[in-house]
């Protein structure tokens, strides 16, 4: 999910621990297809990555959406995404994602197709977004864990406890952005090698907010 908070996008995010393979999710599903909900889980991770990439592509040409460049043929050694339109946000499901913000459906469809093409060309950094809700979840868990740790380790006097809470909060704030990116890369997103665009629908989300829904389907690679 991509929310509307501000963020710094100046740091590169290399996929350094492993190289995503086109058949990785297909093979995983074939081997463990009897596990309930596995396909939906795998698809949700891929949709989440596509949501982020679509926001990146739309953000690159927010002022001139009709001029979205076709970069699907670029080599894999590229710079990480930089532009971010904070007026755009998204919410992923295992069937597609909701996109919030003012956007032409034609431009949205083109952006989704370009995002898929750029993933195929090796632009895997598009899967990570600094405004993703994963970062917020990581920050909250980290702050809670460190606060509990300082509470148990430090003396029980109010001053020490207050200082410990401040230290824990500050440290969590500093560590959360980088840990959030790691969590996105290896837990909550996966390169969408299996996704095919089905349709763009003007609709509303679970809470009645107007949005476009990008409907996708799973396509098993042979």
State the total count of DSSP E strands.
Answer: 4
| Number of helices, where a helix is a run of at least 4 consecutive DSSP H or I residues | 5
Taken from the alpha-carbon principal axes, the silhouette is globular
Residue runs with pLDDT of under 50 for 5 or more positions: 4-13, 72-78
Q: Largest sheet, order of strands side by side?
A: 1-2-4-3
The percent of residues in helical segments reads 40-55%
Largest sheet: 4 strands, antiparallel
Helix-and-strand structural type = alpha+beta
Work out the count of structural domains.
2
- Overall mean pLDDT stands at 86
The fraction of residues assigned to DSSP E strands is 5-15%
N-to-C span: 30 Å
Q: Could you give the order of the helices and strands? A: HHEEHHHEE
The rounded Rg comes to 19 Å
Question: Explain this structure to me?
Answer:
This protein is α+β, with helices and mostly antiparallel strands and 222 residues long. It has two domains: 1-128 and 189-222, no CATH class; 133-187, no CATH class. It contains five helices and four strands. It has helices at residues 24-31, 38-60, 105-120, 133-153, 158-188; strands at residues 89-92, 96-100, 195-204, 210-218. The chain has a four-stranded antiparallel β-sheet with strand order 1-2-4-3, covered by helices on one side. A hairpin with a 5-residue loop joins β3 (195-204) and β4 (210-218). It starts with 23 loop residues before the first helix and ends with a strand. The model is unreliable at 4-13 and 72-78 (pLDDT under 50).
């Amino acid at each position: 999910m991509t929310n509307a908070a501000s963020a710094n996008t100046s740091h590169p995010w290399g996929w350094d621990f492993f190289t995503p393979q086109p058949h990785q999710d297909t093979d995983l599903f074939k081997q463990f297809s009897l596990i309930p909900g596995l396909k939906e889980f795998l698809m949700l991770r891929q949709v989440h990555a596509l949501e982020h990439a679509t926001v990146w592509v739309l953000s690159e040409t927010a002022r001139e959406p009709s001029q979205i460049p076709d970069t699907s043929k670029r080599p894999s050694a590229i710079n990480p995404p930089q532009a971010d339109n904070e007026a755009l946000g998204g919410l992923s499901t295992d069937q597609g994602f909701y996109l919030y913000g003012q956007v032409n459906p034609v431009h949205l469809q083109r952006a989704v197709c370009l995002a898929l093409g750029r993933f195929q060309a090796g632009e895997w950094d598009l899967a990570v977004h600094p405004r993703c809700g994963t970062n917020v979840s990581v920050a909250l868990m980290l702050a809670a864990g460190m606060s509990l740790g300082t509470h148990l380790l430090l003396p029980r006097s109010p001053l020490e406890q207050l200082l410990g809470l401040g230290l824990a909060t500050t440290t969590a704030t500093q560590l959360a952005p980088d840990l959030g990116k790691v969590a996105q890369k290896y837990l909550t997103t996966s390169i969408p090698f299996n996704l095919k665009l089905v349709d763009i629908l003007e609709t509303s989300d679970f809470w009645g907010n107007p949005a476009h829904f990008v409907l996708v389907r799973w396509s098993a690679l042979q």
